[in-house]
Amino acid sequence: MIELSNVSKTYFSNTSVGKRKGNDKNAVHALKNASLSVPKGAIHGVIGLSGAGKSTLIRCVNLLERPTSGSVTVDGQEMTRLSNAELNRARHRIGMIFQHFNLLTTRTVFDNVALPLELMGQKRHAVLERVIPLLEMVGLADKADQYPAQLSGGQKQRVAIARALASKPQVLLCDEATSALDPQTTSSILELLRDINRQLGITILLITHEMEVVKSICHRVSLISDGKLVEDAEVGDFFTAPRTQLGREFLNDFLQLTPPKELIERLMDAPGHNTHPVVRLTFSGDAVSTPLISRLARECGVDVSILQAKVESIQERTLGLMIAELLGTAAQTQQAMAYLESHQLQVEVLGYVQRND
Ligand SMILES: Nc1ncnc2c1ncn2[C@@H]1O[C@H](COP(=O)(O)OP(=O)(O)OP(=O)(O)O)[C@@H](O)[C@H]1O
Fold first, then answer.
1. Which end of the chain is more exposed for a tag (fewer CB within 10 A), N or C?
2. ipTM of model
3. Rounded to the nearest whole angstrom, what is the distance from the C-alpha of residue 210 to the centroid of ligand 1?
């Protein structure tokens, strides 16, 4: 449904032709050869740090930003080749919501939702027939005559969602749609988006910097870093086995499983006299319910001192995480790590600590 093929976007500080040819030292390469494929009916998340290029990417889908190179295809139509008139028509099939809602403050709730229909030249009775059910769907039928200033953040986003759906789009783009909302309102908006996806079959592409959003509603996720898409995975896989260091950092921040500060201060990069490895273990699937830690003691002669542990449920997959110190000789701890890896645990050595006992 949405295909980005080698999309790059460079912002030039100076629009002169000579500078555009590559001499502009202040040019920002916000997207670098990004390729992405979102099938019909999917909810796809793009996660990344601030400045990574998320907004640029999502705005390239409906050409609010025109890519510098590459192609964007939505529902079989190559957006990057359309004339302005064709692009306007194509945009009716792509709804968009924003972090700060972008409602017109001088229009009522009803009139905000009606706006895209009016712009399409629809008659009043057709507008009425479309807007009332939309307001019912987002739970705001009783607020039709109110103005945005009279609404909460969550209610404003509901109006924005109804407005985005007014032209019966097949794709909904969500630009940090819940970032300005508290956690409870965030989950109610995410639930609404999930319902819209299920009931109307609308394909959703969302950008976020929050793992919770990805965990709650996405089927698949891409990780963006410095303008490049560096991971693309099923959500369950991303949460159980991120392939990049940045992916692991997002996961660790989300799970808040970092070694205690006191331990970090004592961690050494390399093993030394009387040191023991401190490891972060990630396990999923069968490994969660297997008593591997007690087997380490029996089979490798290694004691395990557990410093932190957590079990999370992510879209019907169970994920276990643990930070532990492995106590034994160098040969024993090596054997223990190999044993864990052979049972599909991911083992990351965080460093080494000295023990004097
Ligand atoms: N109109 C613009 N002109 C020049 N540079 C821009 C423009 N828009 C974005 N950038 C730059 O492009 C890079 C990517 O910005 P973008 O807004 O896409 O990132 P983001 O991941 O959405 O960040 P955030 O989460 O902070 O909104 C940044 O370095 C940003 O400063």
1. C
2. 0.97
3. 17
